[in-house]
Amino acid sequence: MPIVEGFSFDLTVIWAFVIAFAVLVYVVLDGFDLGLGMLFAAEPESEDRDVMMNSVAPVWDGNETWLVLGGGGLFAAFPLAYSLILPALYAPIIAMLLALIFRGVAFEFRWRTKRWRGVWDLAFIGGSGMAAFAQGVTLGGLLQGITIDKAARSYAGGWWDWLTPFSVMVGLAVMAGYMLLGATWLVMKTEGRLRDRMRARAWVLGLATVLFIGAVSLWTPFLQDGYYSRWFTGWARGLALGVAVAVLVLALGMFRTLRVRHHDYWPFVFALGMFVLGFAGLGFSMFPYIVPTEVTIWEAAAPRNSQMFMLVGAAVLVPIILIYTALSYWVFRGKVDPDAGYH
Length: 343
Known about the structure:
Shape: globular
Oligomer: single chain
Structural class: mainly alpha
Radius of gyration: 20 Å
C-alpha cells in the first residue's frame, strides 16, 4: 500500500518497526537500570546501595531481552546492514558487551561477599557507565555515517572512524539521560532521604538531558544532507517545531512534579516520554535508511520468505515477552522495603 515518496508498508517496513520497537523498549527499560548503576558512585552508604539494587533486582536481567531481540532481529532481517554496521562499530559494541558482562557478574557477586563488595560495586558502576557511553557512541557513529564500498557490499572505513566529537557527545548525552531515568526511577521506588537526594539529582540531570537533546538535535541535521532536508523542508519544519515544543512540555512537567513530594511516579513517566520523543525523532531522521544515508531497509533486507518465516515466530514471542515483562513490573510495583530484597 503506497504512502509518501514511494514508501510502502511491506514485510521489510514491518521488520524495521519490530527492531526499532525492541531497541526503544530496551532503551527505556535498561536505561534506568544502567543509570542507577552510575548513580551508585554518589551513594557511599552500603544500605542505600542495597536499596537501590533491590529496586531493580526482579527486572534487571529481563530488560536485556530486548537488546538480544534487536541485535538478533537485525542479523536475521537485515543481514547486509549487520555486516556493514558491526565492522564499523566493533570497538564500542565490544566495549558495551564486556561492560554488561562485568555489570551482570557484579550484580550477583556483591551479595556473596563482604570483603570484596567494594570491588564489585566499582565493577557495577564502571560497567554501567561504560555500557551507557558505548551505546551512545555506537548511536553517534551510526548517525554520522559509515563509509562503505557499495560494489563489494562491505565496510570501507578505518578502525577509529566511529570516534568523533559528535559520537563522544552522544555518548555523554546517553549517560546523562540514563542517569535521569535512574534518578526518577528511584524517586518512584524509594522513600526518605534517598528519595529526596534522587529528587534533587533529577533536577540537575534533567537540565543536562534537555541541553544534550538540544545539542544533538541541532548538530544532527548538519551531519548528512538527507537529515537537513528531512527536517527543514516543507511540512517537516512544522513537525520539527512540534517535537521541540513537546520535549519542552514534558521537561516542564517533569520539573514541576519533582517539586511536589507526593508525585513520585510522574517524573519517571515524563522522563520516559522525553526518551520516546527523542527516539522517534532519530527514526524520522534515518528512515528509510538503515545505514545512513547509504543503504535503505529494502536494500539490506533478507529474502521475503525468510522475513515471513521469522515474522510468524516474532508474532508469537514478542507478545509473550511483553506480557511477562509487564507482569514482572506489576508484581513488584510500589516502594522498596529496605528490610527485604535480593540475596
